[in-house]
Each structure stands twice: as structure tokens, then as C-alpha cells.
Amino acid sequence: MTSFDTPPSRASRNAFAGLALAALLPLAACQTATNPATDLSRIDTAQGSAENIGSLSAVIQRTPNEPEAYNMRGAAYGRAGRYQDALKDFDKAISLNPRSPNTYANRALIHRYMGNNQQALADYNQAISLDPNYDTAYIGRAEIYRLSGRSADALADLERAIHLDTTDPRAYYRRGLLYQGSGQHQFAIEDFAKSISLSPDAPYGYNGRGLSYLAQGDDENAFSDFNTAIRLNDDLAESWANQALVYEKRGDKEKAAKSYARALQLDPEYMPARDGLARTRL
């Protein structure tokens, strides 16, 4: 089961590193009422396989009026990146059962992936109107608010989800990002720690917490978190760039340059790594 519906956007990742770089400038000069098994944000990536989609298509052939079958296949299409096919299946599921908050939340997530934020917001609102205790919908809507700069609305939705005793790590992770963005690093560290406890194999909480540690001047804990993030997934550019920040702050430009170079190899458009390499290349 994945912990986050999608990795942070490039804009979000640039913000993470930008926050840590600001500290370096002087030196550098669920618990829900619906079935979680059909919640796209919680379905394992493997469930987007052609084999699984084929199996779900066979189910639909046998029971063409079963809305959950379309919801499940839509989720699988979503995990496979087949967003238009996913939308068609969610539309069909909603036509068969217009009172499923889970299906609206799943369709909302696909709309968000496609950049259709207004449609996503409308679907999250509908999911919440059908089930005011649906934590996943609050968490999803909060992300739209957060990315559009509506931090107060995002915080309110995340706190609503947490008040509902959600076990979804995204609620704490994203609230941690809001605290981090406003400079409340101790609160951010506590939320990132909670997200890590709920999903210890996901690297994002470690990267987030590490940046707040770094902003507080706690290089050792920051370095430990960044290295853990790399150990969990060594294909994330931000983890290597974050590690490089610590090397750079310690004055080890050679190691910093190597880590920045690795980050750029993974994501040639990742500006914090590009800028960092320009500063540290010997």
C-alpha cells in the first residue's frame, strides 16, 4: 500500500530545497466510512498492471451494472497513468451509483493529476457532502488548497481529517509542509514524525523532517533523515539534493557536487540541484 497518492510536484520540491537553501545562503553566499480497498489513493501501484486491468474488465463483462467494478478498474487505470480511461470508468460508476463518496474522491484525484483543479474541487466537495466524515476527501481537497496558496483552508481540512482520527500519513505530512512553509519547524518536525510512524517505508516524511531539522541548525539529524530517504528510494532527486545541502554546509564541496550531480542525473530540470552544482563544482 502506498503512503502518498503522488510524489511532491516539482514546485513543491523546489520549495523544500529553497527553504533549506535560505538557511545556507550566508554560508554559500484512515479510517473512513467507505471501502479503502477501492480508494485510488491507497491502491498499490502493482494494481495498475495490465493483468489486473484485464481481470477487472472480465468482471465488468460479467456484471456490467456493478458500479464498484468500474470504480476498481478506474483506480487501476489511474495507477497505470491511463487517466482518460480512468475518468470514463469513474463517470460510469457515478452514473450507476451517484451517492458513492469514494468514487467522487477517486475521480477528483485523477482530475488533480490532469491539472483540472476546479473539477477536482467540485468532486471533493460532493464526496464531503455525501459523507462529512470522509477523511480522504478532506486530505485531497486540502492539497488543492495548499497548492493554490489557500493555506488556511488547507490547514482547516487537514485538521478536520486528523480530528476524525485518520490513519492516512498524508494528513500529517501535508500539515507538516504547511507548518514548514510558515517557519514553524518544531510543529513540522512533529507532524513529519507522525507521518513516518504511519508509513515508515516512504521517503517523503524523512525529507520533510530533515529540511526542518536543517533549518533549525540540527545538521546531524537532518543528514540522518536524508540518508534514510535515499536508502528507502535512491531514485528521488530531492533526497540527493538535500544530502548535498548538508555536505555543502559542512564545507565538503566535492561530496556536495557529487550528490547534486546525482540529483540532476535523476531529474535534469530540478533547479535546486542545478544551482547547487553550479556553486560546488570544483
Automatic annotation (TrEMBL):
Residues 1-28 form the signal peptide. It comes from the Bacteria. It holds the Pfam family TPR_1. TPR repeats lie at residues 67-100, 101-134, 169-202, 203-236, 237-270. SUPFAM superfamilies: TPR-like. Keywords: Repeat, Signal, TPR repeat. This is Tetratricopeptide repeat protein.
